[in-house]
Write a structure and sequence with these properties.
Bound molecules: zinc ion
Number of strands: 2
Number of helices: 2
Shape: flat
């Protein structure tokens, strides 16, 4: 996989990708299945080749500015921000490289 090469969030491509994502997928949160999602989440990790601007790689999700009206977060006891909660989950441990064996 190549490096991201300066791809940045912000600017028009992002706004266009957002608009296209909501047009294509509506406002159903892809994490919990409820309506009202107003944030865009990436399906694929950007560093693993997922595109930030390809709506096929983007899905609506509940975020801090649009928490789910149905789900309650077990951690905060309030409306769930699906996107943040997912991102807050511990990630897989990176591959351990034993430098001594190289
Ligand atoms: Zn949700
Ligand atoms: Zn929900």
């Amino acid at each position: 996989m190549g490096m991201e090469g300066g791809t940045r969030w912000g600017g028009r491509p992002r706004a266009r990708a957002r608009a296209e994502t909501f047009r294509r997928w509506g406002h159903i949160c892809h994490l919990c299945g409820h309506e009202g999602a107003n944030e865009v989440d990436h399906l694929g990790e950007l560093r693993y080749g997922g595109s930030s601007y390809d709506p096929a790689n983007l899905r609506p999700a509940h975020g801090s500015n649009s928490p789910c009206p149905v789900c309650i977060s077990p951690t905060t006891g309030r409306a769930r921000c699906c996107n943040q909660e997912r991102n807050a989950k511990p990630r897989a441990t990176p591959l351990a490289v034993d430098l001594g064996s190289i």
